[in-house]
Amino acid sequence: MPIRRNRSKLMSPTTLTLLASQTLNCSLPTIHNSLMVSYNSNNLTLPTEATTPITLQLKTIASGSTFNLTYIQVIGLAKTNYDIFAKHKNDICRKFEHVLIQLFNSLKRSLSLIENLTQILHHFDYSPEVHANGYRTLILSHGHACLRTLEILKQVKAKHIARLHRRIHSLKLLQELKSWTKTLKVMEHMLSLAVGLVDCSDKHSLFTDFSQIPSNIELDYYKMVAYDSKHLFGRTCGFQFNRSMEILLTIILASFAAYYDTYNRSKTAAAASLATSSKYILFPEQRARKCAEILRNCDYLFCQSFWNLLEHDSIKKGSRYIAPNVTVSKYFQIGPEPIEINSIIVPPPTGPSSMQSKQLVNIKLLSHEIREGMDKLSLQRADLEGSPKIVLPMSDQLLMHVHGGGFIATSSATHEVYLKPWALGLEIPIVSVDYSLAPEYPFPRAIEECFYAYAWILQNASKLGWTGKTILFAGDSAGGNLITVVTIKAIEAGLRKPDAIVCFYTPFLLRYSMSPSRLMAVMDPLLNTNFLWRCVAAYAGIQCDGESHNDELSSARVSTDNRFDEIQASNSKRLSPNQQVLDNKNKPPNKESSTIDLHHDRLTQIVGPRQLCILRKLSESKLLDHPHMSPLCVSDEILRQFPTTYLIVIG
């Protein structure tokens, strides 16, 4: 499949407009990649002694510039500052000495690990044309952390002679230097685990099944997940992203910590707590400790509750001042009758927990103007945000959108902040699907609803002001997973497939495995590893003792198992070589019973019994291997029939 690159960083309405104008007229099966990476790395030449001249030739992924000078300056300034502080005997200088020694040693070890990784980076690249993979991103993130550390070291050098002996001026810089040193030590830990993953990987696959990973690497990984995050959510929060995002991420994490303090109270009180989150903004160490504690101990209900704060009326009202108005904004339900298109019958959703009233599918239509045919939807005054200026002819293009939220939270209303600008910029109708959320409606309910909505759109094109000519899919995160699976189901059923799909930071493999991106998820403030495990478990219908139960939810999980058996039986497509590489069955390790018990006890101490229960059930679940759960496992025969596909990452 040919590959072309799209270097757009973030998908603005204007960017999507340009993208869609190209995509909606394109029918070739092409993958467009928007990774901001084009990386050709040379070997690193490292000194045997840290004090000797350093020659580094590591090119960055982003711009072709190098981190050579950065590493040289960090090591040089660390040594210079250490020599100066060593001449003084006061307490502050001793603390600086200690931190600088840690920084120096960590950087020296990290550069050795980077050298090892650099030798094999090309084996994992996205394609021969696009030199990008998770290991390259990990190295790049380490380089950016070094750049930020260099800024602190320069401030220390500039001020230590005049002011650092004054406690009031020194403590802040000391705390900043400590924070960045701890972050670099966490990055060193990630690099070490990455080297271990490469040694365990099969046929240069980025994903390594946990059954193939030595127990010591597995334990180190869980220790990092459990304990290292407290060094990443304080002063250095979000350093791997654009600096313009750091303030936003800090506010989100502060709100996250403040919300936990009022969790289980009324929604009004919880929402009000966000206004009192200033202490977690002013005191980053306190915020980091709190967030790490929450991520380690909370269940999926808290994750769901926090994300669903965006559904609170107060926040919705506020978003109206951010998102522009469109003429048509109609929310309605479709179903429950089966849909027949060219002798292909698409049944209404029958997944877990379905009842007669819940077989209906909720969708929202957004349009910048009323178009011919929309009157068939019986538009009311409440469906119009503005006065119609003109009734336009039917559009040749339509966009079907599926929102993200970890399969457990948010709705189309949450995502209107960008959907409405898209509707105005693209000047085409947008249909957003409000699928039922896990854990009340686990797999495959969301897929069935999205597929049913797609069939309804095809059959009722004129009601949406669409000629039926060209349709584009778009989805972020979990929504990207769902639109990919809907495309797979359309190909399998012989139904018309979309003309193109756009996937924003989409998880294509939900299987319980290790990869560079999952290493880096430890420092992700929004999609943290602990959150991801709980979201996947909820979507898969996995529940452990001690979590809340209700009859409907329990029956849903029983139904999930039955539905999976049906899906498994109907899946007669041959496995692709990619799937054969990924499909490493979990085999019990050949260890003595006492060793296994010791390993289990250590894991329990690290992650806790509830988390260990989730991890064990995730590792045992065959459901996560199914192509409708993990699209990366689908056959090459299906992939060859895919439409133009855009992969968009955040940066």
Automatic annotation (TrEMBL):
Keywords: Cell membrane, Cholesterol metabolism, Cytoplasm, Hydrolase, Lipid degradation, Lipid droplet, Lipid metabolism, Membrane, Steroid metabolism, Sterol metabolism. Its main location: membrane. It is an enzyme of class 3 (hydrolase). Its EC number is 3.1.1.23, 3.1.1.79. Signal peptide: none annotated. Transmembrane segments: none annotated. Gene3D superfamilies: alpha/beta hydrolase. The keyword Cytoplasm applies. GO terms for molecular function: monoacylglycerol lipase activity; sterol ester esterase activity; triacylglycerol lipase activity. Pathway: Lipid metabolism; Glycerolipid metabolism; triacylglycerol degradation. Residues 399-540 form the Alpha/beta hydrolase fold-3 domain. Pfam families: Abhydrolase_3 (PF07859), HSL_N (PF06350). GO terms for cellular component: caveola; cytosol; lipid droplet. GO terms for biological process: cholesterol metabolic process; triglyceride catabolic process. It catalyses: 1,2-di-(9Z-octadecenoyl)-glycerol + H2O = (9Z-octadecenoyl)-glycerol + (9Z)-octadecenoate + H(+); a diacylglycerol + H2O = a monoacylglycerol + a fatty acid + H(+); 1,3-di-(9Z-octadecenoyl)-glycerol + H2O = 1-(9Z-octadecenoyl)-glycerol + (9Z)-octadecenoate + H(+); 1-O-hexadecyl-2-acetyl-sn-glycerol + H2O = 1-O-hexadecyl-sn-glycerol + acetate + H(+). InterPro entries: AB_hydrolase_3, AB_hydrolase_fold, HSL_N, Lipase_GDXG_HIS_AS. It is found in: Cell membrane; Cytoplasm, Cytosol; Lipid droplet; Membrane, Caveola. Residues 575-596 are annotated as: Disordered. Coiled coil: none annotated. Belongs to the 'GDXG' lipolytic enzyme family. Monomer and homodimer. Interacts with CAVIN1 in the adipocyte cytoplasm. Interacts with PLIN5. This is Hormone-sensitive lipase. It comes from Rotaria socialis. The lineage of its organism: Eukaryota, Metazoa, Spiralia, Gnathifera, Rotifera.
